[in-house]
Amino acid sequence: MRVLIVDDHPIVASGCRAVLADDPDIALMEAPDAESGERVFLAEHPDVCVIDINLPTVSGYELARRILAHDAAARLIMFSMNDDPIFAARAIEVGAKGYLSKSGDPCDLIEAIRQVGNGGTYLPNEMARSIAFAGPAFAQSPLSKLTSREMEILRLLSAGKSLSEIAWLVHASYKTVANTSSIMRQKLGVRTSAELVRLAIEHGVA
């Protein structure tokens, strides 16, 4: 099975190599950002992609969207430092077949790759319970009101990107991004982009 790891942290990539080294059935490929990840996917057509959500330019959500636009059957696992079930829910919404927390058991990575590689889905038990029983707390979080595309634009705003830069990064028109920003402000009950950025930082989107 050929597995592509897209993560910009050398320590994480090294850890993945170490965890998967003893499995002779897994051939590992690596990419440090969304752009190179997309190129490797198109060139190599890996069986499974493990994608970090917080990549340096556009996020793993955006990379997942691009990969699935090329191949709707692509098998993707999202990987994050964030244990908030909203991030897992958005990963599933965008089309991922699995979600892993970087703070989880390393054995989860092997299990997730096997399950998703065989056509299944994977969520660690604790994360699945968090999503299933989040209930009111999930609904009350401002992030629950946002789509994965809106979260992507919010993350880029919080990184200091202008609307025109964001439009270029997410392959959308300036008007689309400006309208999305306006919709987010309405959804979240804030009036300015600065308030949007503050909210993003408070909730771990940045």
3D architecture notes:
- With 206 residues, this protein is of the alpha/beta class.
- It has two domains: 2-136, Rossmann fold; 141-202, Arc Repressor Mutant, subunit A.
- The chain has eleven helices and five strands, in the order βαβαβαβαβααααααα.
- β1, α1 (10-20) and β2 (27-31) form a beta-alpha-beta unit.
- The longest helix is centred in the last third of the chain and has 15 residues, at 174-188.
Helix content: 40-55%
Q: In order across it, which strands form the biggest sheet?
A: 2-1-3-4-5
**Distance between the ends:** 33 Å
State the CATH class of the largest domain.
Alpha Beta
CATH architecture label name of the largest domain: 3-Layer(aba) Sandwich
Number of domains: 2
Helix count equals: 11
The proportion of strand residues reads: 5-15%
Radius of gyration (CA) equals 17 Å
Major beta-sheet overview = 5 strands, parallel
User: Structural class of the secondary elements?
Assistant: alpha/beta
**Basic shape:** globular
CATH superfamily of the largest domain: Response regulator
CATH topology description of the largest domain: Rossmann fold
User: Could you spell the SSE succession in H and E letters?
Assistant: EHEHEHEHEHHHHHHH
Tell me the total number of β-strands. 5
Poorly predicted regions: none
Mean pLDDT: 86
